[in-house]
Design brief:
The chain is an alpha/beta fold. The chain has eleven helices and nine strands. The radius of gyration is 19 Å and the shape is globular.
Length: 306
């Protein structure tokens, strides 16, 4: 039995196989429509979510399975003080696989250690968001044709952004990826990402403040929102929230084939006028998220479709 806590839980070869499976699901949905008949997914979401929770549920339903779970801690026995370990032990009696989102870093890992069913980390605090990373990798590979030898700019909240941390850790395993880290001083990537991941891997990277300075050289721009829920101080959040806004004028500085990704939800960081630009692929990214979660469910449940 396998769990997914981090994108690094899969080797590069296994990741390629997973992404190949997701592409096949995209091309041949009817082939997989009953692959999980009789299977149940539990979505245990202690934090609010739209895309991640619904894409997990949609993925299982498109595979013919069923879904149960809760969408906030207040609607579960966590409100009564039940531990994550006891919750997953209970849910293991009802479901075949579980996806857990939790505000505390490491909570899904704790659950996986006592679970009798596969557990997927659907986001733990500011730490990891591996299925978003799988979505990002599938989006880039499907639209760029490769996961090596390109320049990616990561812009916005690089300190608390778990999607950014997971994506950097995944991409340093591919050769020739160059990173441009675009953030204000207060929201720079944590030291462990800079030292233990980027520098340790030998990949080229630079840290800049102005988006305008970086955008002409990018193959991919990964925008993120400043996350209000991660700030301890309302004043700091208000000061930082509109630091970057991607609009038509800035898009005019970019190359004709640059892709704009965003894990969503967005607030103000991408103007709606950018949505009609063919380089803006963040809603297509959402669609890829369903395919990759279908592939992940099949992989963890060891369901083979011929």
């Amino acid at each position: 039995m396998r769990h997914l806590m981090s994108p690094l839980d899969f080797s590069v070869e296994e990741l390629d196989q997973l992404l190949d499976l997701a592409n096949d699901i995209e091309r041949n949905p009817e082939k997989y429509a009953h692959a999980c008949d009789g299977k149940i997914l539990a979505t245990l979401f202690y934090e609010p979510s739209t895309r991640t929770r619904l894409s997990f549920e949609s993925a299982m339903m498109h595979l013919g399975g069923k879904v149960l779970g809760f969408s906030s801690a207040n609607s579960s026995s966590a409100a009564k003080g039940e531990s994550v370990g006891d919750t997953i032990r209970t849910v293991s009696c009802f479901a075949d696989i579980a996806a857990i989102r939790h505000p505390k870093e490491g909570a899904p890992l704790v659950a996986s250690m006592v679970s009798s069913i596969p557990v997927v980390n659907a986001g733990d605090g500011g730490h990891q968001h591996p299925t978003q990373t799988l979505t990002d990798l599938l989006t880039i590979r499907s639209l760029k044709g490769r996961l090596d030898n390109f320049t990616i700019g990561l812009c916005g909240d690089l300190k608390f952004g778990r999607t950014v941390h997971s994506l950097i850790e995944a991409l340093v395993r591919y050769p020739g990826v160059r990173f441009v880290l675009i953030s204000p001083e207060e929201l720079r990537v944590p030291d462990y990402i800079r030292e233990d991941v980027l520098k340790a891997s030998g990949h080229e990277f630079e840290e800049v403040i102005r988006l305008e300075d970086a955008i002409p050289d990018l193959d991919v721009l990964y925008m993120t929102r400043v996350q209000k829920e991660r700030f301890f101080n309302e004043e700091d959040y208000v000061r930082m929230k509109d630091f970057y806004i991607l609009d038509k004028e800035k898009m005019g500085l970019a190359s004709p084939d640059m892709l704009v990704l965003h894990p969503l939800p967005r607030v103000n960081e991408i103007s709606t006028e950018v949505d009609s630009d063919p380089r803006a692929v963040y809603f297509k990214q959402v669609q890829y998220g369903r395919y990759v979660r279908e592939a992940l469910i099949l992989t963890l449940l060891e369901v083979k479709v011929c």
